[in-house]
Amino acid sequence: MQSFILIFQIFIAISLGYFLAPHLSKGIKQFIFKILPFFSYILLVSVAFELTQALNHIKNPIAILPPALLIAFTTSIGSFFICLITYKLIDHQSVQGKISLHLFLNALKNIGKAFLALAVGIVLGILVNSSELQMTFNSWYLLVFFIFLIGVELAFTQFDRSWLSWKVLMVPVAAFVGSCLASILNYLILSNQYNLNEILALAQGYGWYSMSGILFTELHSAQLGGIALLTDLFREIFAILLMYCLGWRFPRSAISSAGATSMDVTLAMVKQSCGTHYVPHAMMSGIILSLLAPLLISLFLNLKF
């Protein structure tokens, strides 16, 4: 139910921006187009801040960091390469990007800004944790406002209908297959600590840490809930880095690695690194994976193998 509510809010925000856009004054539209590029860095600061907050509220975070990092890294890379291989086979032209010195330097510049934003968020989180301030941060309303702005921009963007084809559905399918294959590798490494169904379930969060942490705690244990939370936080960060490093070259693969976050947090990076044309791809992939994530987590946790 929670996933449907969040998706409904996102749909309302982007629809509101899309249909209000023609009625906005020229000055407001120019202002929106001017501030949009900065939103990706604001969201990065919020992600890093939430990560430090999460670590501060988890008992013995050092013990659960290694499996969380391992699962997050392998599932992100697995999704990326499964999607890349799939499109190499079924649609070779879709993975072709333009290589130029200008694009390469621009990518390096964006990566540098991304790391700076992450560092700012981490420093802010550490300062808050070390002080006596009791602060909780929720970036959801910031995301909803950003998605509204994306809706405004989409109203002035021309799209064809090719993104509705079955090829677009391969992006979330590749995320699922890549995550499952990565889980088998992770099980070989972590089999003395966790069952295969638990590792498979941990791979199904797709970056949606606000859902997975709570769901694992309710269905299994607080320890696995903490691992799920950190896994999806790290997966979001890895997806952002992949987006900036390779999104301009392999846009659909980068979107696949972003998982459920491609419809909200990393949507800013999709627009900036992959191009506005791929925003609908990201929205569809994110919606599908957001709907599947709680169902797949529940399914794998209930299986015993």
UniProtKB/TrEMBL annotation:
Keywords: Membrane, Transmembrane, Transmembrane helix. The chain crosses the membrane at residues 6-24, 31-49, 69-90, 111-128, 140-156, 168-189, 278-301. InterPro entries: LysO. One of its GO terms (cellular component) is plasma membrane. The keyword Transmembrane helix applies. One of its GO terms (molecular function) is L-lysine efflux transmembrane transporter activity. Pfam families: Lys_export. PANTHER family: LYSINE EXPORTER LYSO. This is Lysine exporter LysO family protein. It comes from Acinetobacter beijerinckii CIP 110307.
